[in-house]
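Sample entry follows:

:::
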Amino acid sequence: MTALLLAHFALAACAPALVRWLGRRAFAVLALPPAAAACWGFASWADASQGREDVTVWRWLPAYGVDYALRLDALGELMVLLAGGVGALVLLYCVWYFEDTAAQLGRFGGSLLAFAGSMLGLVLADDLILLYIFWELTTVFSFLLIGHGSTVKQNRRSALQALTVTTFGGLAMLAGFVILGTVTGTYRISALVAHPPPASGTVATALVLILAGALSKSAIWPFSLWLPNAMAAPTPVSAYLHAAAMVKGGVYLIARLAPGFAHIEPWRPLLLVLGTVTMLLGGWRALRLHDLKLVLAYGTVSQLGFLTVLAGAGAYDTGLAAGAMILAHALFKAPLFLVTGVIDHATGTRDLRSLSGLGHRLPVLAAIAVVAGLSMAAVPPLLGFAAKEAAFQALLNGDAADRWALAGCVVGSALTTGYTLRYVWGAFARKPGVPDTAPHAVAPGFLLAPAVLAASCLFLGPAVQGTEDLFATYAGAFPRPAHPYHLALWHGVGTALVLSAAAWAAGIGLFLLRDRVELLGRAVAWRSADLVFGRCLLALERLALQSTGFVQRGSLSAYIATVLAVVLAGQIAVLAVDEPWSGVPAPRLWDTPAQAGIAVLTCVVALLCLGVRRRMKAVVLVGLSGYGTGLLFVVQGAPDLALTQFCVETVSMVVFVLVLRRMPVHFEENYTRWRRVLRAPVALLGAAAIGCVVWIMAGVRSASPAGSAMVEETAHHGLKDVVATILVDLRAWDTMGESAVLAAAAIGVTSLIYLHRRTESDELLPARPSGEPPSPVHTGGASPGERHPSGSTRWTAWTLPHRDLAGLPEGDETAPERTWLAAGKTLAPEHRSVIFEVVARLVYHPILVLSVYLLFCAENMPGGGFVAGLVAGVAFITRYLAGGRFELAAAAPFGPGLLTGLGLFVSTGVALGGLADGTVLHGWTWHGDWAVYGKVHLSTAVLFDCGVYLLVLGVVLDLVRALGAKIDRQIERVAALRAAQQERGGR
């Protein structure tokens, strides 16, 4: 099972490359994993029908009772066949549906295959948390698939709407899962169904939250608005997600939990009422639409309501009927969507008012649609008839609530017959006054997928008894009645058949009166749910804007003052009420005189920041206060912290200086005297409150410190550096999370900078006058200059004509000049410092060697991946400051994102490697003796630290490129523009 899941996602990652290589034929390759899943499902049919289960369990989070648990039983077998079989056929259908030149075809194929893998994981998951993960993966991939044509506003809106509705439902469902797992002490679905908890308010709340997620996924009213709008997706998406896969997820979850929880209120009333209402509303709406795809969409909503009634009724017979109906619905609705795609592809329209005579032009396509449509209308001898007969009889055998639901389902079946006839007539019949539609030729392969599915409806109708063992195995989880229902095509003339005949007759009447029905439907139509949803979102957006405008005033000092005031008020209230200082020993002002001196100087520097008006001076003072803090660490005996503090302050000051080049010299915010008088005490009192809290927390400690245990554990592994061991071993989860946050923050900041549209765009730069030879831009003497997109050589601030720089001679016939840096010549002479270049050249490699030393000595001496990455970043910063952005490009020709991604990959890979021993981040240690080197000690913690090293280095390079090289380019453009204007004015 795990191998099948991995195959889906692995091949999905390769989809863009396959599409570039094979074109649309790549979809045939992408169909292999779902086809393999379907074959595995067919091979497991006999075992699942006899009640045998295929189970895979890995301990994942044992402390929380969460496992990686997969289970294939009877219900899972049905869903695997649908997810795999229909998925493979839809992917084959894509070979003829798309053109090789279609935009983003590789991404579409990868998303569709990844969705199939997510759906497979969802129906196999035997753990609530694992099920939720796959549940949300289907949500994400459906968002990508619905919004495939992202250039169209409607597609983007529909995708966002589907994501919003299903995500909120999923979050509610997650809360229900957590409550249920906490109450029962397990998240295993099989255990929960076998031994459900007793009814209580807590369990009922959890079930309502879980059902909210299931109902939103399956588009049950009032969450049904997203499904019709999702028809903006390509037809293969509609055929798979909205007929056989995604929308079945909610029905599947209801069917999965029903054996254990259907007896707990409000399970049955909620599902029976909402399912029946959805069936009626969806069917009624489908009778007045003209888009064939929308007719099927609202028909799908109606059928999902029917399935919800059957899956949630909680009885043996309804469970049997639910299994048969789930299978039948997938087999008749998917081919109808695919047929609609063929019609749209061949004629360019889906409007039934414009289509006429297609039945004569495309008889095979019409035959496929008629077979699937008759199965949807439950006409014998098709599978839909046998499934609906089972459903009617099961509800007849139930209690009063089931019979009320049956009445609604009979009316819904009449509506189903009506919109089925409307679809077939609208697509293929010849209409008076409408000229015959001339379709394009349809390739035989295009009809393969819908033909196979429609033929399955025809074959499984008479052979429905062969599926009973599988469905009865699932239904066996409910109490078995004395006379259980048996699936068969013909049970004789009975109440169920009479109800079916009444539904057919009423449906035919609705079709014959279609014009009046359409007018009546429009006259009594409610306000559009889509319109209500849009207005609610607009109101929420306005409220958010007003709240943001009220709270976010754009003043950083105001924000900090507010935060400090709240913290100060809270701490004063706690101190005044609880008096926690009683019994706390008095604090020592200092341990050594050196501490006192450094602390006083640091405080003085910090106080000086309050009255500074120049930005650069403020940066220097803040940096000095940071260095003072590092000196306190040194005096206190914490070299690891001191080294980290020094490196962080150095990199931060450089980044500040780079940013200040594009900012005013002075702070622009005006402070009145009373505001200064008010804010300074708030800042000082806030600092005092924090210091007081730290003193009290240290003094009232009752438990023994954890430091001694960590020191002992570190020594047990033969190590000496406790801090580094904590970061990469004992608390590696924290380090991994912080690394991910650091990478996300850096990427977000730099992305905003790179995507910001500058006013000094390239188009403002003048080209040289015609006839004048271009002056190349030297980049170290090796490569030609940068060129304007139009092809003309572009000027930069550092490559203006020589007379504008320093009056140097045009040529030099002496020995060739040697430079200390690779790209030193890219700077104008007045911007170069030979001494700085020499120093940068001399210290660059030693700093890199030092960073590597700090990386690998961290187990026994101060260092570590974070500090080493910062030190390596300082080496590249030195090259940049000495030689400019071209020098940085020469020193680091690779992209910073490569290092960041590689660092995350290495750290995550080491973490996941621990699963081989059953626990994430489990560490291994190897001791050896090399002939020349001597004793060797290697551990996975060092590899984890290497990932941190690469990530930090990538982040530093990313910041320097964004805040340094990027700003350099902007300055060059402005200088070039001014120089060109001056030159034109001189002429």
User: Anything to note?
Assistant: The longest strand covers residues 54-61. The CA atoms of residues 75 and 256 lie 8 Å apart. Residues 757-816 have pLDDT under 50 and may be disordered.
